[in-house]
Amino acid sequence: MPISLTYRLSTALISAVAVVSLAFAFFQTRADTLGLRRDLEDHAQVLAESLVRSAEPLVARHANRELRRLVDRFKDREQIAGILVYDASGTPLATTPGLARRVEQNPDLFLQPGAEVKPVNKFVKLASGTIHVVSLPLHADDDMVIGDLSLFHDAAYIDLQAAAMWRRAFTGVIIQTILIVAVTLLTLRWGVGRPLRRMADWLHHLRMGSGANPPNMPDQGEFEPLTREVRRLASSLTEARAAAENEARLRDLGESSWSPERLRVFVQTRLGGSRLFAVSNREPYEHSHQTGGIECSVPASGLVTAMEPILRACDGTWVAQGTGDADRDTVDEFDRVRVPPDHPQYSLRRVWLTEEEEQGFYFGFANEGVWPLCHIAHTRPLFRIEDWEYYQAVNRKFADALLEEMEFEDSPVVLMQDYHFALLPRLIKAARPDARVAIFWHIPWPNPEAFGICPWQSELLDGLLGADLIGFHLQAHCNNFLDTVGRALESRIEREDFAVHRNGHASLVRPFPISVAGAFEELSAPRELTHPERGGLLDKLGVRASFLGIGVDRVDYTKGIPERFRAIERFFEKYPAYRQELTFVQIGSPSRTQIRRYQELMDEVVQEAERINYRFQTRDWKPIVFLNRHHSHKEILQYYRTADFCLVTSLHDGMNLVAKEFVASRYDLQGVLILSRFAGASHELGDAVSVNPYDTEQMADSICQALEMRPEERRMRMQRMRVTVREHNVYRWAGRLIEALCETRPAKVPGAPYLVPTAMTRSAS
Ligand code: G6P
To answer: Which atom of ligand 1 lies at the shortest distance from residue 302's CA?
Structure first.
């Protein structure tokens, strides 16, 4: 704390404490002094009255000698200065020796003869000190006043005691003031000054770029908001510096990589002020009631992983289903909430579905119908008319919400996401022809024969063709889509342009391989995650091993998890030297658990892991650890960064962002990616060890190859893959998507007539 502040604080404290203590001391001493005076007055009155009773008969009888004896008896009594007795004419009858002299000069100390007889009880200040006098008249039997008796007490002791009391009180005031001031200043110094100094030192180090660890700062009570804000400020500063350094580095290398900043500027110039909207079924942040209050989590979803950085960069609005049990408690009256909760950067508009809607739309049509329809994983799609009706109704519900959000926006730009919303592009374009609409299909598009088994393929295709731009991960998916349209709908397909013309509207069809935020260098990684301890991680899981393999998936039949486990089993059969040396950790986030096929899969995965473990495990080792719960990104990073290899064995996958996240996290250039050739990511990550997940022998050999790969080769492969992930990051994906969308020509006049396809009007009724 600065000296001047300490000085000002101490002066103010000293004055305040001293004034208050002195006032208390004053009143206390005054009360004590008055008490002493009152005691003396009472005591003197009682004594004088008893003396009057003894003196009256003696004065009446003129027994002056006895009277003097009576007076003399009180000669040496403590504090009694003396007694004076007069007759009615004012002649002294008896006096304590020496007293007359003291009182002579003060004739008003006793009753004057002839004066009206009035009792006296008072203190008088004399030159020799304060004296107290009680004067009482003496009466004869017939009640005539025959004289007067005055009793004098020395009251100087009261003054002395008052002075002593004052001295004590004053000393007390000084000690109290010093103590209070000292304790307060020390408390401030330790409780406020030290943390503030630590905070300042840390901020100084951060500013200087030394990246010192955050100090142990108080985060309770009054400090909590300050500490929270300072931490946020520091993390924004670190992020901004990392981004700037990365940009500078790339500029230096002559590369022009996509970053959040570049995307923001790009979107602003391309959209010319139009606002960006995203729509998906899965929301990016889910609020739920937990024992400690409401908690916020990020669901496991490749789509969320990819879209989140874009919305952050462009401050748009994301419309999604509210699925958390505390979601309704966290939105405003328009069902909106700003996210991310720690550092709000864009708006999330939640749409509420009834149980029946969720069952029919999400579990039924989208995930028991379209999902297995598009993934060649040999799970049969189920199509039910009720599910289809809910699918249409929910698409309309999302359309209403989106139209509401876009109401006051001119030429909005909309990025619709995935197979849940095949009908949405048409619904939006019908109401807002000025909107530029893109839909990105995050899953594969199968060949026309496979897609043709869907009873509502024409409606789905027509809904999609409402979009100005239809995106897929791979060129092969675009080709399949065009072939499907060609077979199912009346339309004109321009193969050179990859465009479909229908009802006077053109839809471009393009590949945009989705990605993650990028593979930045170490400086951008959160410090606490940079050197995770493999031993510590495995210890927590209760296993000992020298090598670690990792798999991260939603528990979905397209991911090939049982196939992966069987490959691990085969690996231990073929390469027994690795028993008790390698443990494979499978993080499996439960997914779509109301669907029977997913329940069966979960049982199968658990049983396979148990069976294989039973075969090989020892007291402190097992081949497979299956972590059957949702893990945060931060938790997963620790495994990515310590694993010797990552196994991605999808039977069929649009892209698979786990593969790219693993690469992005390995700035140590270690770790081997084993990747299914049926995952879209395999088209870009040619340096992964490629596998066919149906080929158990090959997968087992690939694990051995990964473990025994020369460090130099491992480095080279990882380095090349990192360049790809860094260059082809999600900002580039969004930039290219938006660029292509801006090249389309939407109608300028809102409300232009549009013919809603008959199939949709029929089923909508
Ligand atoms: C895939 C889909 C996404 C979906 C995600 C998680 O990545 O393409 O649309 O969000 O899986 O599935 P869920 O059903 O939990 O949203």
So the answer is: 7
Question: pTM (2 decimals)?
Answer: 0.69
The C-alpha atoms of residue 287 and residue 348 are separated, in whole angstroms, by: 12
Cα 596-600-601 angle, rounded to 5 deg: 115
Q: Are 277 and 414 in contact (CB under 8 A)?
A: yes
CA distance 244 to 448: 47
Mean pLDDT by 10 residues, the chain (765 residues): 67 84 88 91 90 90 88 80 85 80 62 61 83 89 87 87 88 86 83 80 75 69 78 78 67 67 83 90 97 93 86 92 98 97 94 98 98 97 98 98 96 96 98 97 98 98 98 98 97 95 96 88 46 81 96 98 98 98 98 98 98 98 97 94 97 98 95 98 98 98 98 97 94 94 69 37 32
Structure tokens at 372: 């297995």
Longest dimension (CA), the chain: 152
Cα of 2 vs centre of ligand 1, distance in Å, is 56
DSSP string, 298-359: --S-HHHHHHHHHHHHHT-EEEEE--STTHHHHS-TTSEEEESTTS--EEEEEE---HHHII
3-state secondary structure of 292: coil
Q: Which residue lies with its CA nearest to atom 16 of ligand 1? A: 282
Selection from 514, 543, 511 nearest residue 617 by Cα: 543
CB atoms within 10 A of CB 697: 11
Burial zone of 143 (CB within 10 Å; 0-12 exposed, 13-18 middle, 19+ buried): exposed
How far apart CA 237 and CA 229 sit, in angstroms, is 12
**Helix spans in 83-222 (H):** 99-104, 156-188, 194-208
- Ligand 1 atom closest to the CA of 591, numbered from 1: 15
The pair of structure tokens assigned to 102 is 């003291």
Atom of ligand 1 nearest to the CA of 280: 9
Q: How far is the CA of 84 from the centre of ligand 1 (A)?
A: 114
Q: Is 687 exposed, middle or buried (0-12, 13-18, 19+ CB in 10 A)?
A: buried
Q: How far is the CA of 420 from the centre of ligand 1 (A)?
A: 9
| Ligand 1 site, CB within 6 A | 282, 301-303, 418, 442-443, 554, 591-592
Distance CA 10, CA 185 (A): 7
What the block records as the tokens of 250 is 């790339």
Ligand 1, atom nearest to 362 Cα = 14
